[in-house]
Write a structure and sequence with these properties.
The two termini are 29 Å apart. 58% of the residues lie in helices and 0% in strands. It folds into 2 domains: 11-109, Fumarate Reductase Iron-sulfur Protein, Chain B, domain 2 (Orthogonal Bundle), CATH 1.10.1060.10; 116-180, no CATH class. The chain has 202 residues and is mostly helical. It has 11 helices and no strands. The chain binds iron/sulfur cluster (2 copies). The site of one iron/sulfur cluster has 15 residues, from helix 6 and helix 7.
């Protein structure tokens, strides 16, 4: 088991737990996690994740740096924020998932073969259309990772489409330009926050 003490890359961090917290913009409240499992039970990607958010947080606390950064779990996170709004301890779960992805990339542990493309497709849909495009997202993901599963899910998709619960083409929201400005503003704030943190830690 890695202690994280010798290998942490965030200045000022005494161990992997602190490294994760200091690498995440804002207050993660990770220390407040009570291992209740609400996040694991809420996650729509939970079945595909190698570890649930709850398990990842226990592993972070245990200093299991290599195992956490090796986990495919963060790459299946689609940033839906469902876990974050349901967490009774207000842990910034989604933010931590982003941090783990960034740390994994820096550590050369990018899971290109896993859900990274799903996450990128979801973000791309939101940036271009202002909302998710479930049909395209699911079809592309199953074709790339599990074509057999695509046939199994086709019946369900057909049922959803017949009940007008599934669009076959992406639908763009009104005022997409305003959303793009908001997203750009959020990116600017995150970048400024990261620069500010680096200067504080320097
Ligand atoms: S829901 Fe919150 S408190 Fe419960 S296990 Fe997940 S992160 Fe921890
Ligand atoms: S934000 Fe990520 S980890 Fe949380 S419920 Fe959504 S997909 Fe799961």
């Amino acid at each position: 088991m890695s202690t994280g003490v010798q290998v942490n890359s965030q200045k000022g961090a005494a161990n992997f737990f602190e490294e994760v917290m200091l690498s995440t913009p804002g207050d993660t409240r990770l220390q407040m996690c009570i291992q209740c499992g609400t996040c694991a039970g809420s996650c729509p990607s939970g079945d595909d994740m190698q570890h649930s958010p709850r398990q990842l947080f226990a592993m972070i606390r245990a200093g299991m740096r290599e195992e956490v950064l090796d986990s495919t779990a963060p790459w299946y996170c689609v940033s839906c924020y469902f876990c974050t709004v349901r967490c009774p301890q207000e842990v910034n779960i989604t933010g931590i998932m982003y941090t783990l992805k960034n740390m994994a990339i820096k550590a050369g542990k990018f899971h290109e073969e896993e859900g990274a493309d799903l996450s990128q497709s979801f973000v791309s849909n939101v940036e271009n259309y202002g909302r998710s495009f479930e049909f395209g997202l699911a079809t592309r993901n199953f074709l790339q990772h599990s074509p057999v599963e695509l046939f199994r899910m086709a019946t369900m998709g057909l049922g959803m489409w017949s009940r007008e619960r599934l669009d076959l083409t992406p639908q763009r929201i009104k005022n997409i330009d305003q959303l793009k400005l908001i997203l750009q503003k959020a990116k600017d704030i995150e970048t400024a926050s990261e620069i500010g943190q680096s200067e504080v830690m320097a």
